[in-house]
Design a protein that fits this description.
Blueprint: H1 2-7, H2 10-22, H3 32-39, H4 55-62, H5 68-93, H6 100-110, H7 114-117, E1 129-130, H8 136-139, E2 145-155, E3 160-169, E4 174-179, E5 186-188, H9 191-194, H10 208-219, E6 224-227, H11 230-237, E7 239-240, E8 244-246, H12 247-250, H13 264-271, H14 285-302, H15 317-320, E9 322-329, E10 348-349, E11 354-356, E12 359-365, H16 369-378, E13 382-385, E14 391-398, E15 404-411, H17 419-448, H18 452-492
Parallel strand pairs: 1-7, 2-6, 6-8
Antiparallel strand pairs: 2-3, 2-5, 3-4, 9-12, 9-15, 10-12, 11-12, 13-14, 14-15
Helix pairs in contact: 2-4, 5-6, 13-14
Keywords: Coiled coil, Exonuclease, Hydrolase, Nuclease, Nucleus
Domain Exonuclease: 144-305
Subcellular location: Nucleus
Length: 494
């Protein structure tokens, strides 16, 4: 592994380090920041952005990892980049072999976030299924496509389990529409989201393994699997398939960073002209699978290469009063999360937790949107933006046990859609206008009133002129007096 790391390009090393940060991975010298404090005595962790560090520093950190489990994760990312290069080389050297469908696969693989979201732990999980695609040159000839969507429930062991899977083909024919028995105790069916209750699963015998077999059969000839934020579905299905099209990767917003991933509903409004569902409505697994396939078909037909217009989002006030806390290690109890925020805030945490592997997420609920925004600003951490441009902070804080953990805290809207931020901007703008007006009036007043120094100077000049004039007169009088005295002397004969 050390040799592979030594030969890797900087962008690859940066992605591996960022993944290690996201997952809280630690080598022999600790996590990334702990390593920097030890390795770089001058700057330490004050310069913690991996992209701003040299290849030598990045490689030195990654070489501190020795656990087989960690090294396999690194190998996954290196393999992702190897796949990218292979597909790029194929499209460059044999452009005739790249079909429009394959181009969308390439766009997915080339997305900067692909290695992070599609590096699955399939190497050490017995339940995972990895599809064998064979040689790239052969699978490139296959343009068969299937779109998938899943619904998941939260189980008592803090994991998520699939309870419904829907798959449609490129002709919009349903290939799979199955309810799935989670085969473990369910803590929350999330009926308000999934539309599925315990009663719906009574008598269901289909298992995850059955679904995996069906999917493997559909995909065995190199078929392309489509989905929106497909990585979440693949992780839930425990299916590692390399030939994918992620609709959140292949469309881009105009005048927005490439990392801003559109929601399925917004994408459908912009591309298809209609919503998948109304705000707050339950998910429909089959509708979402149809929507993903229709988006790909629209992309193939119309291109949308210039980007799409970002639709206006109406976010309820109740949502803006929340902050999303995500990337929380499962071993960190939710009660510890209060330590993130200043003690003068009354904050509650949503009881329904969303679990992804070894991490979970929840909502911190405040009195109103303004208080949520203030709390976010007061948190110390590395400020960045998520895939949709929403502000978030990567923070580290100490637990009651003394241990330190890291996670993300994110706002519910971009700053331009957050009224509390807009209000703050307006206040600052009004304050700036008032200050500028005051300054202008003061300058006008200063210009209008006489300058004391100028008056003193003018007075002094006039006084000097007066004295010079007086002196000149006296000198004239003195000369006249001398003339008279000389005349008198001559007259007297002296």
């Amino acid at each position: 592994m050390d040799e592979k790391i030594a030969c890797a390009e900087k962008e690859v090393l940066v992605e591996i380090v960022r993944l290690a940060q996201r997952r809280g991975m630690k080598g022999a010298a600790g996590g990334w920041k702990e390593f920097l404090d030890h390795y770089d005595k001058k700057l330490g962790s004050s310069l913690s952005d991996p992209a701003r560090r040299s290849i030598d520093v990045l490689a030195a950190f990654l070489k501190t990892f020795t656990k087989e489990e960690d090294l396999k994760i690194f190998a996954k990312i290196l393999q992702c980049h190897s796949n990218r290069k292979a597909i790029k080389s194929l499209s460059k050297n044999s452009p005739d072999l790249e079909s429009p469908q394959q181009r969308l696969v390439r766009l997915t693989l080339e997305h900067p976030q692909y290695p992070i979201y599609y590096s699955f732990p399939s190497y050490n999980e017995q339940e995972w299924v990895v599809t064998n695609l064979g040689k790239i040159s052969k699978i490139a000839n296959s343009n068969e496509m299937f779109a998938v969507d899943c619904e998941m429930v939260l189980c008592e062991d803090n994991t998520e389990a699939v309870v419904q899977v829907c798959v449609v083909d490129h002709n919009l024919k349903v290939k799979i529409n199955e309810l799935v028995n989670p085969n473990k105790a369910v803590a929350d069916y999330r009926t308000d989201i999934t539309g599925i209750s315990a009663k719906d699963l009574d008598g269901v015998t289909c298992t995850l393994a059955d679904v995996q077999r069906s999917l493997k059969k559909l995909l065995k000839h190199g078929a392309i699997l489509i989905g929106h934020s497909l990585n979440s579905d693949l992780e839930a299905l425990k299916l590692d398939h390399a030939r994918v099209i992620d609709t959140s990767f292949i469309f881009k917003y105009i005048n927005a960073p490439v990392t801003r991933r559109p929601s399925l509903n917004n994408l459908c409004k912009s591309v298809l002209g209609h919503e998948v569902r109304k705000q707050g409505a339950q998910h429909n697994c089959l509708d979402d699978a149809f929507a993903a396939m229709k988006l790909v078909l629209a992309k193939l037909e119309k291109g949308f290469n210039e980007g799409i217009t970002m639709p206006h989002e109406d976010i309820p006030e109740t949502e803006l009063a929340k902050l999303l806390i995500h990337g929380i290690p499962v071993e960190v109890p939710s009660k510890e999360l209060k330590r993130i925020f200043p003690t003068d805030y009354m904050v509650e945490f949503q009881p329904n937790l969303k679990v992804r592997g070894q991490k979970y997420s929840t909502f911190a609920i405040f009195k109103d949107a303004q208080e949520a925004s203030q709390a976010f600003e007061r948190i110390e951490g590395i400020r960045e933006k998520d895939s949709r441009g929403r502000p978030q902070k990567f923070i580290s804080f100490q637990l009651s046990t003394g241990a330190t953990t890291s996670l993300y805290v994110r706002k519910m809207a971009t700053d331009d859609l957050d009224p509390s931020v807009e209000s703050k901007k307006r206040l600052l703008q009004e304050e700036r206008i008032i200050n500028e007006t005051k300054k202008s009036k003061m300058m006008t007043a200063e210009e209008s009133k006489p300058s004391t120094e100028s008056n003193q100077c003018e007075h002094l000049i006039k006084e000097i002129e007066r004295l010079k004039e007086e002196l000149s007169k006296r000198e004239e009088e003195n000369r006249n007096l001398q003339t008279i005295m000389a005349a008198l002397i001559r007259k007297s004969g002296l």
